Amino acid sequence: xxxxxxxxxxxxxxxxxxxxxxxxxxxxxxxxxxxxxxxxxxxxxxxxxxxxxxxxxxxxxxxxxxxxxxxxxxxxxxxxxxxxxxxxxxxxxxxxxxxxxxxxxxxxxxxxxxxxxxxxxxxxxxxxxxxxxxxxxxxxxxxxxxxxxxxxxxxxxxxxxxxxxxxxxxxxxxxxxxxxxxxxxxxxxxxxxxxxxxxxxxxxxxxxxxxxxxxxxxxxxxxxxxxxxxxxxxxxxxxxxxxxxxxxxxxxxxxxxxxxxxxxxxxxxxxxxxxxxxxxxxxxxxxxxxxxxxxxxxxxxxxxxxxxxxxxxxxxxxxxxxxxxxxxxxxxxxxxxxxxxxxxxxxxxxxxxxxxxxxxxxxxxxxxxxxxxxxxxxxxxxxxxxxxxxxxxxxxxxxxxxxxxxxxxxxxxxxxxxxxxxxxxxxxxxxxxxxxxxxxxxxxxxxxxxxxxxxxxxxxxxxxxxxxxxxxxxxxxxxxxxxxxxxxxxxxxxxxxxxxxxxxxxxxxxx
Length: 511
Hints:
Pfam family, one: RVT_1
Largest sheet: 5 strands, mixed
Protein name: Retrovirus-related Pol polyprotein from type-1 retrotransposable element R2
Mean pLDDT: 85
InterPro entries: DNA/RNA_pol_sf, Rev_trsase/Diguanyl_cyclase, RT_dom
Helix content: 25-40%
Domain Reverse transcriptase: 1-181
Radius of gyration: 29 Å
């Protein structure tokens, strides 16, 4: 296999080639004329210290920021791939795979080094005719032999445009679409998550407002980690320190004591929490979601290869050819009958999805089923009062639905506590109760530091201090809390200052 990277791909495609590619793709002539009017005769001017330059003709490249640009580039590259790739591809579970392409990142697969080199030369020649060229320094190859159940690296050199490209060896890996790939590469993401943990601590120690810290952590730091969790195999031990840091940091930001329950940290902002996820649970959610999306893919090659891989994993478990219904039982984590064997699991996507289902089923009730009539897998989530059945056309909802049900479990677990869960069922019912956590309208720092402690019953009162020998009575004889109501309160009875306490706590102070 060879990873090829185009140099300045979006800015190098000639307009002439774009219009020709549209014609080959069967785009109506009226649409081609409209696109031609956009690109033909286009110019650009540059403002310099001496003034504006004259018109500079633009004869290549798609427009940056235009929603049409990605479509035009893909159609142009499609012609390059179809013309340049002709040799037989790699056979994977009976399916022929020739090329994987995402924008300008290409992956060519062949059965032999000779065929791969011929294909590289062919696609380089066709790309040159289209005004495109590959950057050898960003390209790489991986060639190996598989004989007698043993894999060995083949040191065959490969050339791109007459230049040798890097050959992946031993424990080395190539980063393709954000995920490292290699033959004997052992994914160790410890350093990556240590960097995420360090960034979380730096943001927490910054002079930002508390709500700004939460937004920065979620939007700019954890988003990087979630992408890797969705698309790579992550060990639970890799995220252990990150989970501990998020819990302790989240408690400090929302001004909760150490003894406060951690579930409030994991709830979304609409439910009154800090929206800092528990990555140990997210890994299981994404493992199940990714498995279902592979089986439900609109691309028949992807879904067929995924189903064949699932059948292979189940076959190693039960030592016979499985039926689709047995594949669903395998994914459900069934351990009865033929599935009771301890051996047979390999470290692939499907056993990992099976193990994730076994762990996640303790918190969320769901099941895999196979619809014989439609010939596809369904994913059922038994939420109350209305169960949900996810079909292939809505496969993208699996992760969100599982995360929502995880939140419901956190709320249920928190509400079962005697001393900290008396109000969570109320303030988590509607986003209006928690709008200030993100919008921070009419919210002062003292309000922010008070509301989360009040909701969990963790206010620093003499009567609530644990293991304290102090007098539980108020030290100031003029003020005391005489009543606490845990019930929904009509918002029309309060002013903007009281908006923070809708559907939450009503404290009545008496002098």
